[in-house]
Amino acid sequence: NSDIGDTSSSSCIICSSKHYLAKCPQYISKTTQQRYSILTKHGRCYNCLGAHRVSDCHSTKRCIKCGRKHHTTIHKQPSLDKQVDSTKATTPQETVTKSSSSQVLHLNINSTHATSCVLLATAQVVIINQKGSTLQIRALIDQGSEITLITERVAQNLKLSRSHSWIPLVGVGGHSSCKTRGVTSFKIAAIYENSETLEVSAHILPKLTNSIPSVSIDMHQWQHLIGLTLADPHFLQPLAVDMIIGADVYHQIIREGLKKGPIDSPIAQLTAFGWIISGPTSANRTSLLTNSYHASMDQQLFDVLRKFWEQQEVCINKSSSLSPEEQACEKHFQDTHSRDPQGRYVVSLPFKRSAKELG
């Protein structure tokens, strides 16, 4: 939300110039704590910088660094002592990543012996929003995921409209790793001209994986891969993943065509995006970070939560439960209420116009 700023007023609360608060040079020059104090002093929203409380904020924008409900300009970097020093591991240790790093569906195994690097199937795809705007990203093709996922960064960059969704995800080992931040729909296509487009529904998460592959790999003489139109021309370079294409979409992109080489060499599978490459390589390294991807919805917990809200919901028929005077008061509030610069509500009192005379 760093490109949105304060949309509630045309004048800056610091220098009174005609620009948004997030664009003010004086505001930008402050430290994170000083910016936070400025927002508190002027009663501004910590999420969109508007003239209201954050609890009343209806903006769907979130911090582009962590995906939480605060403005990017007041994002605080986590302290270093909270990060795990994996270099201290002397024996193989299997752990599931914690929410402090915002990683999901990710299995870490620290080891001291040399192992080969394995390529996971990736593709460069173009995401198209409802208005036709596009963004090229790297996607991981993962049959181990029941649903398709995208990052908060992509959703905000393309201003994708989202529906409320709070679905717990279950990762490797049955651990509930995180919860989605909404669901959205868009189209995807290959990076090549005249490629077909597919309608996709995806759940939103702050972050999906580490960069893959975990190390740079030199192009070997894999004769069976020469001349192929690759879905990801940069599949040998560690790059960020902004989308996981799950099994719900996999059947739409798979095509007939499989190319195999010698043992311990990757294979190529034809898809709607081009040829995807996956499998072992001869690249070795002494510290292995193994990526094992699997995600499924915790349907039991989701159903329990949905049933809870259905039971707690109270249906109110306003026309039958409110008296004429109460309806007039409600309309009076809707027509006259406003907010002052400090974010407080201002409304006139609903006096009776036809009050009976006393005595």
Helices and strands, with pairings:
Blueprint: H1 25-29, H2 32-41, E1 93-96, E2 107-110, E3 115-119, E4 122-128, E5 134-141, E6 149-151, H3 152-157, E7 162-163, E8 168-170, E9 176-179, E10 183-190, E11 197-205, E12 243-245, H4 247-253, E13 254-259, E14 267-271, E15 274-285, E16 296-297, H5 299-312, H6 318-321, H7 324-336, E17 338-339, E18 345-346
Parallel strand pairs: 5-12, 6-11
Antiparallel strand pairs: 1-2, 3-15, 4-5, 4-10, 6-12, 7-10, 8-9, 8-16, 10-11, 13-14, 14-15, 17-18
Helix share, percent: 10-25%
CATH superfamily of the domain at 107-292: Acid Proteases
Strand content: 15-25%
Shape: elongated
Ranges where pLDDT stays below 50 over 5 or more residues in a row are: 2-9, 79-114, 286-290
Total of helices: 7
Count of beta strands: 18
Series of H and E elements? HHEEEEEEHEEEEEEHEEEEHHHEE
CATH-defined architecture of the domain at 107-292? Beta Barrel
Strand arrangement across the biggest beta sheet: 4-5-12-6-11-10
Organism: Camponotus floridanus (Florida carpenter ant)
GO molecular function, one term: aspartic-type endopeptidase activity
Region (Disordered): 78-97
Domain Peptidase A2: 137-174
